[in-house]
Amino acid sequence: MALAELHARGKVRDVFEAGDDLMMVATDRISAFDVVLPQPIPGKGQVLTGLSLHWFELTRHIVANHLLSADVEEFPPPFGGEYEELAGRAMLVKRADMVPIECVARGYITGSGWKEYRASGTVCGIRLPDGLVESEKLPEPIFTPATKEESGHDINISLDETADRIGRGLAEKLREATLSIYEFAAAHALERGIILADTKFEFGFAEGELILCDEVLTPDSSRFWLADEFEPGHGQPSFDKQYVRDWLDASGWGHEPPPPNLPHDVIEQTAARYQEAYERITGEAFDAYLSRVGRPEASG
User: Fold this and answer.
1) Residues 129-139: pLDDT tens digits?
2) If 0-12 CB within 10 Å is exposed, 13-18 middle and 19+ buried, where does residue 291 land?
3) Is the pLDDT of residue 298 over 50?
4) By the 8 A CB rule, do 66 and 296 touch?
């Protein structure tokens, strides 16, 4: 894509100019502790895109989204001929004015929420019942927004702080949309034996309409747990990069660049976890997805 103009580059995604629209490409890069690791995870970008496509279709009755097409044959120049590079990992999307808030929904007490709860009994200013244990299901899902930081970790803030930043009306609208999508997705995932512990969304405005943007409900933006292995009282194994984080911690790395090289077995195990997440949630074999989105047969 040498002729394409880069719009933005994140830890995992490359976004290119595409006329009035944008081309979002999920690479196989993986980051941990805010550092991009040396080796990619094969197929990871296609898992992220495939799952996002799945959820965009299922949730569009709740809120519109930025997806225009994921069909390489429909991509504008110079992207249309990049079948091998883009198939299954790229989305042509609407350009949107992004809301500068990470919209997080939590249905279980874990991660940074568990850490804050142990210290204060609250999560983002929301008072929770006493006596909760790690990974326990909350009485009802909660909206816990965060700032979007250019570098380092996002910072959890309260709904009131969110309202101070973007206005009360928009803050309440984000809360409603976030929890509606979460509750729908959590029920859908549970039917497939997966607990959606928490997730984060990004929203923006296109032509005056609030729409869902970026990736949605993937292992990079969500905690997925196996329902039949769920056991409150401790951390749960999940379909995300926790396997990589655990190996990095065990290696003695201090979370500052440069990171160590990942062993082959860690790369393989991580790739398998991402692919299993795709297969369980969509009900489709990952290889079938790759075949479905692969380069079309030459005609004539």
Assistant:
1) 999 999 999 99
2) exposed
3) no
4) no
